[in-house]
Structures are given as structure tokens and as C-alpha cells.
Automatic annotation (TrEMBL):
Keyword vocabulary terms for this entry: mRNA transport, Nucleus, Protein transport, Transport
Organism field: Brachionus calyciflorus
GO molecular function list: nuclear export signal receptor activity; small GTPase binding
Subcellular location: Nucleus
Protein known as: Exportin-1
Region (Disordered), start-end ranges: 1039-1065
Domain of life: Eukaryota
Length: 1065
């Protein structure tokens, strides 16, 4: 700790800097621990923030023995350059520039130093780029000439200069958005293009004459950064392309970077040079066949290759797919290139077989584009066998790709990714288990592969069927049997549902299911049976069209699923329930009709044996089962029959519910027993799922349990409050109390679910809302914060969203109960009660959207509280809450504009306040994600003034509403000048002018706001030339004139007194 005591002297800028002490503090920061490390960090931060800190950078860099200390010094310098460069005296700018250039040359003057100081040198290069953004071209017009000249004197200096040019290109062309103003970025881009000839000559000179492999490599990497912006003549009208292909593509050392350059070139869309692309293709393919013969086993070669060789295969996939997507048609039409096209496609097939997911994704994207393109060109050529008889020819383009696409079908089928519905998987240890975590990457891959295989099936249905049938036969005879092979095959079969003609699909599917059922009988072992069962369920679930057309088969499948519901192997029951619900949704009507050869609808049989079917299922599986049966009953259109089915369907849960209610009536304490509370949770969850499936017809069942449920809700609340009163808030975490809260939450979920599906708002408002509000609102208000349910707020939001104007009269009552007490819970900090804070603003959003007049009726003090809460919301650190806050504010401003009388007092009281708060979040970097909303709100506020919507003075000193614009302009000027005194007056005036001139053009307004955010980070000093203010002013003038022209073209938009003379009549 002794060093920390001494370290405070580093902050005294009247003393000479003790470099060894600074090295010690930096070491403590990186290698120490505990308080010492924390204090070292604080001292270094304070030192870095000191406004004179940059004056010590040269001393630190010269005398420090610690590389980390040097980085620390460079961080100080970088920050100074980014924020204060324009405010520094010119002589100091020149001195810093000279010093950095000198350091760069010193550390790159020979190959050994260059390699040893690589990381340090990179940081110096970055700092030079920051300087260039301010100095070049105005104060350093000779920069490009100097860097090119220096490069010719020394190869290692040249190598580092290439790194500098690469960084400059990235900074100007790739990362300028949000870092540079639009006008500044435009000028830098123009300067780069105008001076590129010297740079190009240097690159060309190096590629032609140098023997230094490191230098050539970095030159190619720099060239790669240039290719997406340089004038096309440099690419197509020089020897660059032949040089890349003939010299560097064949050299293993440069193969990868060269292929990346060629990929960038062939990705260009330039009709003028279309013939050149064919030549590039020809030359590249010729060289490629020398490097990689077409008869190679690429899959093995990739597996055994080193990282460079594997990268080459990935780069090859990018080159081929980029070329074929952009210029495939040009090659296709030219007969002399037909063989080359086939070679390229065969390479892509070989690359697609490689075992690497990222490489496969690249190929997959191309196969998808190609198959979709071929299908769309002639969608009806494979619709049905009947049409095929009439027109037997395959379209010419399809013939070109026929052989290749057959290979692609095999690859898709053998590599098919796992669909979301499949829950039974093989883990890394080779065990068959239930999947708990969804693999989103695999799901996206499945969607892309499925789409591709569907197109491929449309292109040649017979070929797809033949490959799948052959592979299935090999599963049955055992020659290709493995879990992986069976899985991918069945996932592929399931993925092409609907792509075949119905007759073909029927024939094919009967074979598939028969073979899979046979396989299930034939294979021994639980794991084998679980894998086959999961595949049977997946395949049948994917073909509802077939099931709807074949009742007997549908009934057999559903009975098989009921069998699987008793199979205890991990995941099988879950999948059986999930498949059952999918089939129930897609074939629902067939279960409530009497089918041929049946005496009663199948739903009756299910309801009669419901007990037996679900006896081995877990509670969450029972809930899924109930939802599935609910979809079937919802399909019964005869209301009396449907009511009878619902009564029978809910018999089991209702019997248990009635028993619990009878016990509770006799003795209320029974509702404290863990087993009873657990049963209540399950019954309510079953009801929620039943309601979700049945929709509005659930009303009778809800009516049966509604008042009892609200009484149970009150008792649970009372139990929870009592427990908290006796044992403190800690007991809210106890399992029993948590279960009681689940009962409350599920009751609210059930009400929300039904109301959101209800179709008679008046009946809901009259019969269901009054007892609900009485039970829920008072309970919420009087409970301790820990016992309040966030779902109360979301339920109220659902009610408002569904019932809209019908509930307006109840809004004051709802607000009185939930508003202030919730606000007190959430406005102390940004972290506590995350569920309540989000739901609170969702409720406010719903009221603002649907019951806005209710907000205008409440007391001014409470209205101000609401507005304050909205302002507080959009300043929130939780992004979703901040976003809801901005949405509410924007909608509130739009709503209030339509209520003229209320609007004027609103503007007078809150307009200036709102604007200030919005500017405070706009300029907060942690809120950059809300920039679109910030732009919309500010543009709206400025346009209100211009469109004369505000008819009252916005401040006491404004005598006449006509002066509002002038007042707001001056107010914003003062506001921004106070917050950012380093901004020049001329700069600010143009920023504010832009806010008004662009308020009807949102994209331009947003970019203008982004420019403003760039400028506030920089101290401009007296020299504002690189802000190009005159040019920006001219652009804004044009925008203003255009806006005026648009307004003049619409009669009535402009005030009659604003019309020009020639339009008065």
C-alpha cells in the first residue's frame, strides 16, 4: 500500500513526473488485487482525466520501461486528439504530429524492431489516423505524397505505412458513421479517391518488385480494404487482376488473401465490365484446377489440412458463391464457358460436403438462391403429373443444373439440421436424452435447409423421392443404419411436406410410415426405440394434409401417440404431447365429426378415456394435452354440443376444484396446505391452456369457477400478507408462499387470456370487470410491495387493450389503485421490481393508446406525475423500458395535438420541459439505441411550432405566440451552449437551423442529429473549417426550399399570410 500513498504525487502537475512510480502503479493495476488494485485504477483514471495529462505523454513514452505504461500514455493522447485537437494551439498540434510520426518511423525502421514493437506500433498508427481525421487534407495536404515517398526508402517503413493506409481506408469508408459528420466523411472520401493514384502505383510497385513476403502480404491486405471503394478503372483497366491470379493465387503463402481480393472484385456489380468477369472466372478456374484437382476427396483433405488449407476452402466457397450469384447468368449464357460453370458447381458440391458448419452455411445460401431462382422462373412445370404429361420437356436452364442439383439433394438430405419440434437427441456422450436448451443456430439452419430442399423437390420431385426411398431402404436393411443417418433422413422427409403432388405424397408417406413402424418393431433397446419413435412423431406431425385426407391413418397415428404418452424414456412423452397438439390444431374438425365407419366423433372416445391417456404424464404434459383437446372442441360449431363437450372435458379438474372449494368453505385454513395449493396451481394452469385453445366459448367454464377463484385469490393474498407481517419480507421467498403467489398469477393469467379472446365487450364490462377490480385492485394497493403481483398491471393492460373505449370510465379507479403505489416501488432506482416496472409502462402505454380522454380527466397533479413517470421511463437503463417510455411520449404528443383545448395548456406547461429532457437522453451515449425515437419526438416538437399548432406563449417572456419559434431557437441555443460551451456559435446556429429545416424529413433529421452527437465530443477551437459549415448551411437551405415547395403544392397547408404574392389568387 506504500506505493499507493506515494502515487498521489502523480496528480500534482507542479512536480516532475516520477516515471518509475507511474510504472509501479500501472503494474499494481494489472497484476495487483483487492483494494490496492482498485485504488491504483482510481489514481490512473484521475490522471487520465486531468486536462494537462497529455503534456506528459512524451516523457512517459521516452523513459518508461513498462509497455503497459506506454499504452496508458497513448490512451491519454488518443482521448486528447479525439476531443480537444481543434482547441490546441497550432504549434502544439504540429509538435504532437511530428512527435508521433517520428516515433512511428523509429519503431518501424527495421524488420526486427517492427516485429518486436508490433502492438505498440499499431496503437501509434491508430493515433496517427485520429490526427489525420482533423489535419488531412487541409493542414497536411502532402500526407499521401509523404507516406508514399517514405515507403520507397525502406521496406519495413513501407510495411507499416501500408498498415496506416489500411486503417485510414477503414476509418473513412467503413466506420465513419457516428464518428464523423456526414460532410466531413464526404470530403475525406473525395480526398482518398482523388489521391489514390499514388497509392495504387505504390501497391503495384511492391507487388511487381518486392521479394519481402511480409510486405507483399500486408500490401494485399491493404488492397483488399481499398477494393470496395476505389474507382473501377484501377481494377479492370490495369494489370491488377492478371497479377493477382497469375502471380499470387498459385503461391501457398498468398493464396488466401488473394482469393479474398478476387472475391471482393467479383462481388462488384458493374455492367460495363461484365465481359471482364468472364475472363477473371476463366483465369481463376484454370489456376484452381492446378491447385485443387476436381477428383480430390475434399472432405478428407479438409479434415487433415492445416488452418491455412482449411481457410482456403472457406475462401473458395465465398469466391465461387459470390461470383455465381453476381455473374452466374453471364457464364450460363456463354456456351464456351459451360464446362467451366460445371467445374465451378462441382467444386461447390465438394465444398458443401466438408464437415464445417460455417462453410456449409455459405454454400447453402447459394444453393437456396439458385433453386429458388430456377423454381420461380417456371413454377408450374412440376405441379402435377397430369400437367407433366401435357408438357414433358424440362426448361433449358434446369437441364443445365440437373446433374448438379441431384448431388445437392443428396447433401441436403444427409446433412439436414434438427427441427425445433424434435426433442429427443443424442448428446456428446452418445446417450439419447431430452433436449432442454433450444439450439437457435440449428433451428435457423433447418429453416434454410428446409426451404432449399422444398425448392429442389419442386424442381425434380421424382429424384427427391428416389433418393429418400433408397436411403430409407438402407436404414431398414441395416447397410446405413445409424441414429444420425435415420435422424437426418426423417428430418428431410418431414421438411418437404406440401412440396409433392398429393397423390405422390400419399404413396410416398405410406411407405415411409410403414417402414418406420417396422423398424420400431425390429430394433431392440430403449434408445433405438426412442430415436425411431421421435422420428415417427416428427414425420406424421409434418403431414397434416395427408392425415386430413385419410381418417383411419389419422386415428392410428393419434392412438400411437397415446401409446408413446406412457413411454418413460426421456423426451418421448414431451414429443408425443407436442405432436398431438400440432395434429389437433391442423386436423381439429375431423375429431368432432362422425367419420365413415364410426359411431361417434373421435373426441367422445378421447374424453371417455382421458383418465387412462394422461395417467403417466407430468403436470406440464397434461396441460399441453388439455390445450390440444381444447382445439378440437373449439372446432365444434353447434353451441349446445360444444357446451356438453366442454363440460365433459373439464370434468376431472372441476371435480378436484369442487372438493377444494367445499373444504375451504368449511375451513379456510385448508388453503394453507401445500398439497392443496399445488393442486390449485395445476388446475388453474389446465384452465389457462383450455381457455387459450377454446377462446370465447370457455365463458361457461369461467363463469362456473370465476367468483370462487376470486375468493381464493383474496384468501391467498391474505395468507401472504399475514406471513409477511409475522415473519418479515424474507418469507416471500419460502416455497409455500411462492406457490400461493403462483395461484394468484395463474388466476390473473386465466382472466387475461379469456378477456383477450372475448367478443362481447359490454358483457365483459358488466359481468366480469366489477368483481375483478374489487378483488384485485384493493388487494394490490394495500399489500406490501413484496407481495404485489406484477401480473395485476399486465392484466389491466390486457383489459384496456381489448376493451378499449368501453373501459375508459374505469381508468381513474384503476389508476388510483395501482399508479402511485407502483411508482413508489420503482422510482427509487433502476433495478428493483423489473417485472412491475415493465408492466407499469405497458399499462400506461395501453391507456395512452386506447383511453386517452381518461388521462385528460384526471387531476393536474396526477397528470404531471404520469408525465414525470414517462420522462423517467425513457431515461431508464433497461432498454425495453426506455423504448416503451419513448413510444408513450410520442403517442401522447400525437394524441394531445388532436385535443386542441387541452393541448394548449399542455404545451404551455410541459413543452420546454419535455424538449430539455429529450435532449438530455439524446446526448447520453448509453441511450444511442433510441436515436430513431429521439429523432421522431424532436422532429414532432419542432414541427408543432412551424405548423402553428401552438397558439399560446411558451414562456412568460413571450408576449405573442408568433414569437414561439424565435424563443425556442434561442432557448435550445442557450441549453446546448451551456451544456457544450466548446461548440462555436456558428456551429450551433446551423445545428438548430437543421432541426427546423429537416423536421419533415425523418431520415435526414436523424443523420443531422447524429452529426450533432459527433460534434459535441470535439472541442472545435476557433477553426471550424473542417465542419464545412457553409456547405452544410447551403444543404440545409436547399432542404428548407424543398420543404416549402412541398407545402405550397398542398392547398391549405400554409397559412394564407405565408403564401407568396403570385399564389394569393
Amino acid at each position: 500500500m506504500h506505493i499507493i500513498e506515494q502515487a498521489k504525487s502523480l496528480l500534482d502537475f507542479n512536480q516532475k513526473l516520477d516515471i518509475s512510480l507511474l510504472d509501479g502503479v500501472v503494474n499494481m493495476m494489472y497484476t495487483g488485487h483487492g483494494d490496492a488494485q482498485k485504488q491504483a485504477g482510481e489514481i490512473l483514471n484521475t490522471l487520465k482525466e486531468h486536462q494537462e495529462a497529455w503534456t506528459r505523454v512524451d516523457t512517459i513514452l521516452e523513459f518508461s520501461q513498462n509497455q503497459q505504461t506506454k499504452y496508458f500514455a497513448l490512451q491519454i493522447l488518443e482521448k486528447t486528439i479525439k476531443t480537444k485537437w481543434k482547441a490546441l494551439p497550432r504549434n502544439q498540434c504540429e509538435a504532437i504530429k511530428k512527435y508521433i510520426v517520428g516515433l512511428i518511423i523509429k519503431n518501424s525502421s527495421d524488420q526486427i524492431t517492427l516485429e518486436r514493437e508490433k502492438v505498440y506500433l499499431n496503437k501509434l498508427n491508430v493515433i496517427l489516423i485520429q490526427i489525420l481525421k482533423y489535419e488531412w487534407p487541409k493542414n497536411w495536404p502532402s500526407f499521401i505524397g509523404e507516406i508514399v515517398g517514405a515507403s520507397k526508402t525502406n521496406e519495413s517503413v513501407c510495411q507499416n505505412n501500408m498498415e496506416i493506409l489500411k486503417l485510414l481506408s477503414e476509418e473513412v469508408f467503413d466506420f465513419s458513421s457516428g464518428q464523423l459528420t456526414q460532410t466531413k466523411a464526404k470530403h475525406l472520401k473525395e480526398s482518398m479517391c482523388n489521391e489514390f493514384q499514388q497509392v495504387f502505383q505504390l501497391c503495384n510497385f511492391i507487388m511487381t518488385n518486392s521479394q519481402n513476403t511480409s510486405l507483399i502480404n500486408v500490401t494485399l491486405e491493404t488492397l483488399l480494404r481499398f477494393l470496395n471503394w476505389i474507382p473501377l478503372g484501377y481494377i479492370f483497366e490495369t494489370e491488377l487482376i492478371p497479377h493477382l491470379i497469375e502471380t499470387f493465387l498459385v503461391m501457398p503463402l498468398f493464396r488466401n488473401i488473394t482469393l479474398k481480393c478476387l472475391t471482393e472484385i467479383v462481388s462488384i456489380n458493374a455492367q460495363t465490365y461484365e465481359d471482364k468477369f468472364a475472363v477473371i472466372f476463366n483465369m481463376t478456374m484454370t489456376r484452381l484446377k492446378q491447385i485443387l484437382p476436381l477428383d480430390i476427396n475434399l472432405r478428407d483433405a479438409y479434415r487433415n489440412g492445416n488452418s491455412d488449407e482449411q481457410n482456403f476452402i472457406q475462401n473458395l466457397s465465398l469466391f465461387l458463391t459470390s461470383f455465381l450469384k453476381e455473374h452466374g447468368e453471364t457464364i450460363e449464357k456463354n456456351v464456351e464457358y459451360r464446362d467451366l460453370l460445371h467445374d465451378a458447381l462441382n467444386y461447390l458440391v465438394l465444398v458443401s460436403e466438408v464437415d464445417d458448419v460455417e462453410i456449409f452455411k455459405i454454400c447453402l445460401e447459394y444453393w437456396n438462391v439458385l433453386a429458388a431462382d430456377l423454381y420461380r422462373e417456371n413454377p408450374f412445370s412440376t405441379v402435377s403429373p397430369i400437367l407433366l404429361c401435357l408438357r414433358n420437356e424440362t426448361p433449358a436452364r434446369r437441364q443445365t443444373y440437373q446433374t448438379i442439383l441431384s448431388k445437392v439433394r443428396r447433401i441436403m438430405i444427409s446433412k439436414m439440421a434438427k427441427p425445433e419440434e424434435v426433442l429427443v437427441v443424442e448428446n456428446d456422450q452418445g446417450e439419447v436424452v431430452r433436449e432442454f436448451m433450444k439450439d437457435t443456430d440449428s433451428i435457423n439452419m433447418y429453416k434454410n435447409m428446409r426451404e432449399t430442399l422444398v425448392y429442389l423437390t419442386h424442381l425434380d420431385c421424382a429424384d427427391t423421392e428416389s433418393i429418400m426411398t433408397e436411403k430409407l431402404m438402407n436404414q431398414v436393411n441395416g447397410s446405413e443404419w445409424s441414429w444420425k443417418n435415420l435422424n437426418t433422413l426423417c428430418w428431410a422427409i418431414g421438411s418437404i411436406s406440401g412440396a409433392m403432388h398429393e397423390e405422390d405424397e400419399k404413396r410416398f408417406l405410406v411407405t415411409v410410415i410403414k417402414d418406420l413402424l417396422g423398424l420400431c418393431e425390429q430394433k431392440r433397446g430403449k434408445d433405438n426405440k426412442a430415436i425411431i419413435a421421435s422420428n415417427i412423431m416428427y414425420v406424421v406431425g409434418q403431414y397434416p394434409r395427408f392425415l386430413r385426407a385419410h381418417w383411419k391413418f389419422l386415428k392410428t397415428v393419434v392412438n400411437k401417440l397415446f401409446e408413446f404418452m406412457h413411454e418413460t424414456h426421456e423426451g418421448v412423452q414431451d414429443m408425443a404431447c407436442d405432436t398431438f397438439i400440432k395434429i389437433a390444431q391442423k386436423c381439429r374438425r375431423h375429431f368432432v365429426q362422425i367419420q365413415l365407419g364410426e359411431n361417434v366423433p373421435f373426441i367422445e372416445e378421447i374424453l371417455n378415456s382421458i383418465n387412462t391417456i394422461i395417467c403417466d404424464l407430468e403436470p406440464h404434459q397434461v396441460h399441453t394435452f388439455y390445450e390440444a383437446v381444447g382445439y378440437m372442441i373449439a372446432a365444434q360449431n353447434d353451441v349446445p354440443t360444444q357446451d356438453q363437450l366442454i363440460e365433459k372435458y373439464m370434468q376431472l379438474p372441476n371435480a378436484v376444484w369442487d372438493t377444494i372449494i367445499q373444504q375451504a368453505t368449511a375451513n379456510c385454513d385448508s388453503l394453507k396446505e401445500p398439497e392443496i395449493i399445488k393442486q390449485l396451481c395445476n388446475i388453474l394452469k389446465t384452465n389457462v391452456r383450455a381457455c387459450k385453445a377454446l377462446g370465447y366459448p370457455y365463458v361457461n367454464q369461467l363463469g362456473r369457477i370465476y367468483l370462487d377463484m376470486l375468493n381464493v385469490y383474496k384468501v391467498m393474498s391474505s395468507n401472504i400478507s399475514e406471513a409477511i407481517a409475522q415473519h418479515g419480507e424474507i418469507c416471500a421467498k419460502q416455497p409455500l408462499i411462492k406457490q400461493m403467489r403462483v395461484v394468484k398469477k395463474e388466476s390473473l393469467n386465466l382472466i387475461s387470456s379469456w378477456i383477450s379472446k372475448s367478443s362481447d365487450p359490454d358483457m365483459v364490462v358488466e359481468n366480469f370487470i366489477p368483481p375483478l377490480l374489487d378483488a384485485v385492485l384493493l388487494d394490490y394497493q394495500k399489500n406490501v410491495p413484496e407481495a404485489r403481483e406484477g401480473e395485476v398491471l399486465s392484466t389491466m393492460a390486457t383489459i384496456v387493450n381489448k376493451l378499449e373505449k368501453s373501459i375508459t370510465k374505469e381508468i381513474p379507479k384503476i389508476f388510483e389503485a395501482v399508479f402511485e403505489c407502483t411508482l413508489l416501488m420503482i422510482n427509487r432506482d433502476f433495478e428493483e421490481y423489473p417485472e412491475h416496472r415493465k408492466n407499469f409502462f405497458i399499462l400506461l402505454q395501453a391507456v395512452n393508446q386506447h383511453c386517452f380522454p381518461a388521462l385528460l380527466q384526471i387531476q393536474p397533479a396526477q397528470f404531471k406525475l404520469i408525465l414525470d413517470s414517462v420522462i423517467w421511463a425513457f431515461k431508464h437503463t433497461m432498454r425495453d423500458v426506455a423504448e416503451i417510455g419513448l413510444e408513450i411520449l410520442l403517442k401522447l404528443l400525437i394524441n394531445i395535438r388532436d385535443h386542441q383545448e387541452a393541448a394548449q395548456s399542455f404545451y404551455q406547461s410541459f413543452y420546454i420541459d419535455i424538449m430539455q429532457h429529450v435532449f438530455s437522453v439524446v446526448t447520453d451515449t448509453s441511450h444511442i439505441a433510441g436515436l430513431t425515437y429521439h429523432s421522431q419526438i424532436l422532429a414532432h416538437l419542432f414541427s408543432l411550432l412551424e405548423s402553428n399548432n401552438i397558439l399560446v406563449p411558451l414562456a412568460p417572456q413571450v408576449q405573442n405566440p408568433a414569437q414561439n419559434i424565435e424563443f425556442v431557437q434561442q432557448h435550445v441555443f442557450t441549453l446546448l451552449k451551456t451544456a457544450y460551451p466548446h461548440l462555436q456559435d456558428a456551429q450551433l446556429r446551423i445545428i438548430i437551423k437543421g432541426f427546423f429545416d429537416l423536421d419533415q424529413n425523418l431520415p435526414a433529421f436523424k443523420e443531422h442529429l447524429r452529426d450533432f452527437l459527433v460534434q459535441i465530443k470535439e472541442f472545435a477551437g476557433d477553426d471550424t473549417s473542417d465542419l464545412y459549415l457553409e456547405e452544410r448551411e447551403e444543404a440545409l437551405k436547399k432542404a428548407s426550399e424543398e420543404k416549402r415547395r412541398v407545402q405550397e403544392s398542398v392547398p391549405g397547408i400554409l397559412n394564407p399570410h405565408e403564401l407568396p404574392e403570385d399564389m394569393q389568387d
